[in-house]
Here is the input.
Amino acid sequence: MRITEPAPAKINLALHVRARRPDGYHELETLFAFVEAGDVVSVEPAERDEFRISGPFGAALDAETDNLVTRARDRFRTAFGLPAVAIELVKNLPVASGIGGGSADAAATLRALARMTGIGADNARLYDLADGLGSDVPACLFGRTAMGRGRGEQLQPLTGAAGRLVLLINPGIAVSTAAVFARWDGLDRGPLRTDDVMAAALDGRNDLYPPARLVAPGIDAPLALLEAYPGVVLARMSGSGATCFALFDSEEQMMMAAEQASTQAGWWVCPTRLRP
Ligand code: C5P
Here is the structure.
């Protein structure tokens, strides 16, 4: 039986960097949200392990080299036991783009393998595996709006943003998360509100934007387009970039902005909605 799991893109509605830790990671307060657009992971029993990548951004990844999907499979097998599986990843999201593509794929792989083997989706060991795969993987495994603390792995569910219109734009620049964090200036600019998702998002910041611009100045162009567009409720860079997003109230205005952005060569433009 073939099992298919969506791997929704994540956006950080706000991302406050509070401190550099002795282990090299950073202490965060971030509002994770997920959109309807994403990659897709399918698994099915097979004679021997197989891994195939397709989709518009499939060529950017190599199925033979180390990948978060095969790493998730291998760790799942060590933890729970697993017969041979064929895995297919449909890569719709740009890679290294601040919307958690690789993390979402790893989380969807864990969810699909858990379904295949009868492991509960809320199994605590699944979260331990996710935590070991990357800072955003637990949030992607949870897959719902949440406040993230610590490296991003301590999650507190939140409600109140579902259904909002979101336009994602990536200017075709891959950005290394480690390179961006390494350029953070070390200044704690204060906490993120926690009372209400939208109020916190509007009141919040992305503290990785200044260091991300140093790594990839091309991030400014999509953000400038979104900030100036009529009907934009909030425009911001997601994660460590380079994808920027804008929340809209009007679908018509969002689609007009999408059309304008689509005229830029090499830009990935994705109108979508926030999931619950
Ligand atoms: O956890 P993950 O492997 O996805 O993180 C990639 C890199 O991003 C880390 O090696 C680290 O340099 C940086 N990072 C960080 N603080 C975080 C999350 C990531 O410094 N909270």
In short: The mean pLDDT is 96. Strands lie at 3-20, 26-45, 50-54, 85-90, 146-150, 154-157, 165-170, 232-237, 244-248, 268-273. The domain at 3-157 is CATH 3.30.230.10 (Ribosomal Protein S5; domain 2). Residues 25-26, 28, 134-136, 151-152, 177-178, 181 surround cytidine-5'-monophosphate (CB under 6 Å).
